[in-house]
Amino acid sequence: MAEEILSQGEIDALLSAISKGEMDTEQFKVEETKRRVKVYDFKRALRFSKDQIRSLSRIHDNLARLLTTYFSAQLRTYIDIKVASVDQLPYEEFIRSIPKVTILNVFEMEPLEGRMIMEVNPVIAYAMMERMLGGQGRSYKSSGALTEIETRIISQLFERMSEHFKEAWSSIVDIEPSLDEFESNPQFLQMVSPNETVIVISLNTTIGDSTGMINICIPHVVLEPIISKLSVHYWMQTGRREQPKETADLLQKKLEKATLPLSAELGTSTISVEDFLSLQLDDVIELQQSIHSPLVIKVGDVPKFTAQPGTKGKKLAVQILEKIKGGEEEDE
């Protein structure tokens, strides 16, 4: 329950009334002992804790960054997407809050039950479509039904973003999102009962000069199997136990595929600038190394091996003789 904060004038008036006997201090004790009643709206049941709301906000902060990159690449223009709010409310209230004509993308969330809605404000959707058709990204259309071509263009754009949902949710659950339905009238879309609690994540989206909201609606029935994972305790346990092994395996795979520059150094020489400027065709530079001395093999700029030159088939080659010890080796 929110606490009521008194102004300085109200505090002075209260102290003055007590000092003059106009108000009995016993009255405060009586009121303090009275049972405090808090109004509860059964139509708007709160099923998600603040901790779980914060976890959902964290997941969709990551999703917002992924979608910013995705749409910027697809539309080749400035895109900015940020989480504006995360709220829980009845499904009926969500449907009433969105425009009568809008863009509704319904995603399956296998293996989770139920479906998720991604509502895109027409201002944003039409700006995206105009950009894809070669325009400057202005919202040229604000009402009216979509044509078949417009429907196809917009639905394909949002269908290809399902991989980013998968990546954003991967820290909690492995899902295979897929676009199941595309609709423009929210009255024709009844996924759950009107009083069912849903989570609505609002993403503030800017495309050029156009600004609007993208709302992601996730019913409670979808999140119910993984509700225990939406807690700080789970995130901390996952970070301590699972993440190090997964990270180590990933680093090992990346390192195994990394390429390294390998060079065989025939020798070195030092000459003056004057000699360097006067070099001509067929001039010979004497190296400070005997032809009987082994070559130095460098990995990057670090000497690692000694080798002897030769050929393999019709190609020049070197044969490794031994590993060079000291320097970098001693630091390991």
UniProtKB/TrEMBL annotation:
GO terms for biological process: bacterial-type flagellum-dependent swarming motility; positive chemotaxis. Residues 254-324 form the Flagellar motor switch protein FliN-like C-terminal domain. Its main location: other. It comes from the Bacteria. GO terms for molecular function: cytoskeletal motor activity. The keyword Iron-sulfur does not apply. Keywords: Bacterial flagellum, Cell membrane, Cell projection, Chemotaxis, Cilium, Flagellar rotation, Flagellum, Membrane. Gene3D superfamilies: CheC-like, SpoA-like. It is found in: Bacterial flagellum basal body; Cell membrane. The keyword Nucleotide-binding does not apply. InterPro entries: CheC-like_sf (IPR028976), Flag_FliM (IPR001689), FliN-like_C (IPR001543), SpoA-like_sf (IPR036429). It is a peripheral membrane protein. GO terms for cellular component: bacterial-type flagellum basal body; plasma membrane. Belongs to the FliM family. This is Flagellar motor switch protein FliM.
